[in-house]
Write a structure and sequence with these properties.
alpha+beta; globular; 2 domains; about 10% strand; NADH Oxidase; 4 strands; 4-stranded antiparallel sheet
């Protein structure tokens, strides 16, 4: 056990922030840590857009489904997969491959995780905002994103106003497979569902009575942004 591992294991999403701003040097360190993440073939296909204009923040909060903390957090960053700069460097660049979409998503996710871990190590907190993909075309227009750039997620950062309980994750016995893929153990899943149900019932806010399996079923039994495929193709991603 060391400080890095303790920081990772203490992760929880923060949605309530104080009004204290993030010091410029801390923000610079967070962004530098994001930029230090691994990059497939050193392509470096991620851009981060820092949003400070209150009106823009308010619009994004609404586009993301009315998530007020997008507007109130000390910092709000939009992480984008970006191959537009590569097109500027090499006009003949072969873009649009689905593999590039995967690379963009993976590299951008790695940068986001680096940024959040760096922030948490300095006593800050944050939350990912996947809701920016609720209205990707409007967000693209709002942020003047060119072709070959897509916004993947936002990130709120700030000083936590409260520290919610840590959500229990799936046990490693379910997540980690030995040599070959293992079928789901129904008894282990049942025990985990009971654990999650107890967590939701006992936590200090937003109590509810639901298991993990029930929550996952409710999420996956409905359509998941079916407009994304057409949007990605309009932006020059996954066209082949």
């Amino acid at each position: 056990m060391n400080q890095t591992i303790e920081t990772i294991l203490q992760h929880r999403s923060i949605r309530q922030f104080t009004t204290e701003p993030i010091e410029p040097q801390k923000l610079q360190l967070i962004l530098s840590c994001a930029n230090a993440a691994s990059s497939s073939s050193f392509i470096q296909c991620t851009s981060i857009i820092r949003i400070t204009n209150p009106e823009t923040r308010a619009q994004i909060a609404q586009l993301a489904g009315g998530q007020a903390y997008v507007a109130s957090a000390a910092e709000f960053l939009v992480f984008c997969a970006d191959f537009f700069r590569h097109k500027q460097i090499s006009p003949n660049a072969q873009l649009g491959f689905t593999e590039q979409t995967l690379i963009g998503a993976i590299d951008t996710g790695l940068m986001g995780q680096n940024a959040l871990l760096a922030a948490e190590s300095m006593g800050l907190g944050g939350v990912y905002i996947g809701g920016i993909r609720n209205n990707p075309s409007k967000l693209t227009e709002l942020l003047s994103l060119p072709n070959h750039v897509v916004p993947l997620f936002g990130m709120c950062l700030g000083y936590p106003a409260r520290q919610p309980e840590i959500k229990p994750r799936l046990p490693l016995s379910i997540v980690v497979h030995q040599e070959q893929y293992q079928q789901l153990d129904s008894e282990e899943l049942k025990a985990y569902d009971q654990h999650v149900r107890a967590y939701y019932a006992a936590r200090s806010s937003n109590n509810k009575q639901v298991s993990w399996s029930e929550q996952v079923s409710a999420t996956l039994d409905k359509e998941a942004r079916p407009f994304m495929q057409a949007y990605l193709k309009r932006q020059g991603f996954s066209t082949r």
